[in-house]
Amino acid sequence: MTKPRITYPGACVLQAVSRGCRYGFDVMDFAGLPSGTVYPILRRYEILGLLESDWEETDGAHRQGRPRRRYYKLTAAGEAALGTAAERFALHQRMFAPERV
Amino acid sequence: MREHRVPRLSRWLLSITLHVADRRFALADLDEEFERRARRAPADARRWYRGQVARSLIPNMKNRLARVPRTVFGDLVGDIRFALRTLASTPVVGFVTIVSLAVGIAAATSVFTAANAFLMRPVSTSISAPDELVSIYTTAEGGERFGLTSFPDYVDLREQVDAFADTAAVRMGVLQLQSTDNPRRITAEIVTGNYFDMLGIVPPIGRAFAPDESVFGSAERVAVISHHLWQSEFEARPDVVGETITLDGTPFVVIGVAPADLTSRLLALKIAVWVPLGIPGGTYHSNAEELSTRADREHTVVGRLRIGVTAAQAQSQLDVLSARLQQEHGEAWQDERAQPLALALVPASEGTLPPDWLTALAGFSSIVMFAAGLVLLVACFNVAGLFLARAGKRSREMAVRLALGASRRRLVTMLLTESLLLGVLAGVLGVFLSTQAMGWMDSVTLPIGDLSMDFDFSLDRRVLGFGFLLSIATSVVFGLAPALEGSKPSLLPALQGAVTRPSGKRRRLSLRNLLVVGQIAMALVFVVGAGVTLASFDELLEADWGINPERIAMLSRKLPEEITRDATVPYYRDLVERFEALPNVEAAHLATGAEAGAATIDTTAELYVDGYERAEGESLTVPLNSVTPGYMEMLDIQLLRGRTIGPDDVEGAARVAVVTESFAQRFWGDRSPIGEQFGITSLYQMGNPKPMTGVYYEIIGVVADGGYQGFEGGGRMYFWTALYQHPGPRVLMLLKGSQSAEAMVEVLRGEMDPTDFEVAIVTPRTFEDLISFQFGFLVFMGKILAGAGMFGLALATMGIYGTVSFTVNRRTKELAIRQAIGALPGQIVRDVLREGLVLTTWGLVLGLGVVLPLAALLRSEIEGVSPVEPLSTILGAAILLVVAIAAAMVPARRALRLSPVTALRQD
Questions:
Q1: Has domain A8-95 been given CATH number 1.10.10.10?
Q2: Average pLDDT in the B435-445 region?
Q3: Does A36 sit within 8 Å of B59, measured CB to CB?
């Protein structure tokens, strides 16, 4: 597989997922990107193998009275891609420097 | 459970643009977040959601296009991509096109919706089988003037006409709502108990009136409240049934909440509460006396035709009833010209408005629609101009494509795709702007009389769809001509980067010139139109009423019940003295009404004068005002002869009256009327007739004519009598301040008893405010018209600048070469300017040629339209001239600064 080119928004999304944002809106909220940017990236990176995802258990969502979420997490390839991207976007690295608790 | 509604249009837009694979969870995530936010602040949440959608549309579309395989739709996708890139490379052109079109579409759809709300709004969706409904009016014979119907007539109709499955009577009223934080006057419909059942409306919460609680004469104090009142007064609590609301000082039990889209049948007015007719003691003016008086026509009658009965059959039954009623109730069944009345039926398919209102309103709204249409036309011109310009600029690109073997069809498809894309984007923006505009209009309350009225301006989905299609059609039609033109350049000159104008371009250039002329003409129409509209309203507001309302404020009062007939005058005198003694009060007076239409406590009298022969059908009903001594001086009413009401005009003395010049002229010609007498046969107070015999007035003074009857008043006849000679239970308290009317409003406010609902007929207001209140609606419409004018002017200016500057820009090479071979810069600039000036002049001439006859026509058709104002016209023309000159000058000077070599190398 060719090495995926990570765009700036893409790096933000990876960064967000690596900081524990697990589903689409959470990522949007953290990265400050609109849905039209975030969801295609999530799907593309999943195809590229940088991310993997799972539907949330139905019961959990129903108990809280909300729709089911699709949860994402970084794969090893994703970690690597994020590392490369972080070097490329140094400013971006600084922006997200304080750990998110 | 989801409780808040996601903005549906936005959600739909998002879902169609999202990739299928993302759609489900992307929408779900956004919905979840929306719900979380909506719980805190629903309005913010909606805004947030729209923002999200707006920011996602372009990336979504780009993503989707990137994924379509270049096979079947290959060309199309390529075209769209190319169009997006072209658009991005000339953002200004794209921006101007999209904004022009969007504003045009928004103007057209908003105005259409407003007109729709007034004229032909579909009835509430909660009404079952609305086609079977008919409105029944009492008309003058011959079907003119569709009026309301009296309650006794309604009862007869209900009992004697069997063409209807059911009929209901509705009386509009205004009630004082007592509420801890916001006591106010609200619109009410006082209805027969079967009203909701007849319409087939089932209240979503609670129920409609039950037969046993709406028995006429012993109806119970129960109310169905509007969806809006339910939200504002009861925080939309589902357990509202059984609560009480206090209307006009008496408690009513809430039994149900009406469907949200139920409005009055007339004018889509939002009604706040429905109460049954025939409550003992009455509601509003709907009391036993009114309900038993045949001449008191205050009810709208709505009926549902029996299945199988046609409107014509029902009408013929009504004719039989009318004939019988005419015979039985002679005088009560005549209009003021002694013509017999008749009942007339209007099917719901012909609208819920009386036909004569419809005609009047249609005239007015056609003007507004014309203005909106013109805004749209200007937008189209802008688009056409820009497309033309672009097609011209790209002739070389087209030539290269043709030379490389592209078919003409491919080129036209490509250019059309670009227009289509712009059309779609403009349509989306236009629809968005319309929803915003209508949201704003829906939230505006119009002050009419002393009451704020809400109209239902919710946007019709069909109108939106129409606007969207219009946008696409416009861009395609206006993109087509340039596309056809642009795809057939003469190859050689275009490839060589022709300097001269080849024959093929002559036509295109003249089309462009035509556009400029048209735009300037339309811009002038806007300038003049806005000027005339504003001047007309100013004139209306500044009209000479014959009174000086400065520094005066008023408040209505009702005589306390414990005051006996004999104690009335002393009570009133005390009141006046007490107020006169207050600091800053220059004068205090009582009156039964106020001139210039300021207060609606109206009294009219039916007159007779000995020796005066009443002409056939002549009405001698004249409005009057009973006032305290000095009242007429306070208002600076100009006395021509004799004296005004004085301190000696008291009970026991001869009854006196001061009349207007027209009044005197009518009965006594040029003779002095001082000392003459006239009699009164009946007195109408708030529509209730009171027969009188042997009441004579002696004329003691004559004053100049004025607009005492207010805006609605037709005649100039008016008279004043002495309040202390025949005091009534309802008066207006008027105070003139030594400094300002506002200070007097404060004084009067201190006098108000918040629990006394009678006070609310006229709450403390300044006289001037109250005069202008009668124009609330007109002023609102005038603002919309003037706004449309300003919008149109801005758009046209934008278009003129764009087209002219583009024309000159195209000549950069020519100008540079001319300079290189020795033309003087001054000469070149003069040349360019001349061309601009010629076009502008043609445009102005054409514009004046259209607008002057149009203004003259309006002036002859509608009373109160001001003549064309030369100043604003000249100013507008000057602005257009400056814009055109600047548009020509700026690129010309730039061209001259370039070295010929650079200019020639330019593409």
A1: yes
A2: 70
A3: yes
Flag if B59 and A66 touch (Cβ within 8 Å).
no
* pLDDT of B268 strictly over 50: yes
Which residue, among B255, B257, B209, has the nearest Cα to B229 in the 3D structure?
B257
Percentage of chain B lying above the pLDDT 90 cut = 4
pLDDT reported for residue B274: 93
CB under 8 Å to B587, separation ≥6 — which residues?
B580, B630, B634, B735, B736
Around Cβ B321, how many Cβ atoms within 10 Å? Answer: 17
* Closest residue by Cα to residue B449 from B589, B592, B594, B588: B594
Bridge partners of B347? B134
Phi, psi of B621 (to 5 degrees): -95, 120
Contact call for residues B299 and B195 (beta carbons, < 8 A) = no
Name every chain B residue with its beta carbon within 8 A of the beta carbon of A61: none
- Looking at CA atoms only, how far is residue B14 from chain A in angstroms? 9
| Residue from B22, B29, B36, B58 whose CB has the most chain A CBs within 10 Å, to mutate | B29
Rounded to 5 degrees, φ, ψ at B145 are 45, 85
What does each C-alpha distance from B51 to A36, B40, B55 come to in angstroms?
Answer: 12, 18, 6
pLDDT at B753: 59
Listing DSSP states for B762-784 in one string gives G-SEEHHHHHHHTTHHHHHHHHH
Q: How many CB pairs under 8 A join A and B?
A: 64
A39 vs B1, B26, B35: nearest CB: B26
DSSP-based three-state secondary structure for B124: coil
Residue in chain A nearest B29 by alpha carbon:
A25
Does B18 sit within 8 Å of A39, measured CB to CB? yes
- ipTM higher than 0.85? no
pLDDT at B389: 72
- pLDDT score recorded for residue B759: 45
- Residue B30 is nearest to which of A25, A42, A43, comparing CB atoms? A25
Say how far apart CA B89 and CA B907 lie, in whole Å.
15
CA distance, residue B15 to nearest chain A CA (Å): 11
Is the Cβ of A68 closer than 8 Å to some Cβ of chain B? yes
Q: Does B26 touch chain A (CB under 8 A)?
A: yes
Quote the pLDDT of residue B257: 93
- A69 touching B, CB under 8 A? yes
Domain boundaries, chain A: 8-95
Per-residue pLDDT reduced to its tens digit, B767-807 = 777 776 666 666 666 777 777 777 778 888 878 877 777 77
Which two structure tokens, joined as six digits, stand for B214? Answer: 């709406």
DSSP state of B247: E
Q: Which pLDDT score, from 0 to 100, does residue A92 have? A: 59
Query: Do residue A67 and residue B56 have CB atoms under 8 angstroms apart?
Result: no
CA-closest candidate to residue B265, choices B186, B353, B191 = B353
What is the arithmetic mean of pLDDT over B428-440? 80
According to DSSP, the β-strands at B656-660 and B688-703 are parallel
Q: Are B205 and B211 in contact (CB under 8 A)?
A: no
Q: How many CB atoms lie within 10 A of CB B511?
A: 15
Q: Which of B795, B790, B87 has the alpha carbon at shortest distance from B382?
A: B795
State the nearest Cα–Cα gap between B189 and chain A, in angstroms.
41
The pLDDT value recorded for residue B790 is 77
Please report the sign of the dihedral spanned by the C-alpha atoms of residue B679, residue B685, residue B688, residue B690: negative
Residue pLDDT, tens place only, B442-457: 666 555 444 555 566 6
- Rounded to an integer, the average pLDDT of B172-188 is 76
pLDDT at B905: 67
DSSP B350: G
Residue B660 CA to residue B680 CA, distance in Å, equals 17
pLDDT tens sequence across A18-46: 888 888 888 888 888 887 788 888 888 88
